[in-house]
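Last lecture ended with a question: if I hand you only a sequence, what can you say about the shape of the protein? Today we answer it with a concrete record. The protein is Methylglyoxal synthase. Below, first the input exactly as provided, then the predicted structure, then a couple of comments.
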Amino acid sequence: MSITLALVAHDRMKPALAEWAARHAAQLAPHRVVATATTGGVLRERNPHLAIRTVKSGPLGGDQQIGGMIAEGEIQALIFFPDPLAPQAHDVDVKALLRIALVYDVPCAFSPATADLLVAGGLLKG
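The predicted structure:
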């Protein structure tokens, strides 16, 4: 069964997310991937074979768009690599995204290690 997975990362974490996606490209391929605009660009550059739908960048409303998709049942999992050491101008939007993911009990990962555990637990099995 195919799922829709949201991939989001703060600027310094985008390369780590792109590498994570490259390691799991075979498992991601049968699923739908949604990413914020800038993250999606980095993901496409590193993983040109993956089909990635983009929404607006995070500061321009992309986090909120993904939150809305979670609320509508369109996204079944969130992989979000935040930068815990850098302040974010759109921190309120990030908190709202995390809140909505919790409200709708969507599986989430916030680091490569936890994202690997979601994959190992069968999240991306077809």
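Comments.
1. The domain at 4-121 is CATH 3.40.50.1380 (Rossmann fold).
2. The chain is about 45% helix and 15% strand.
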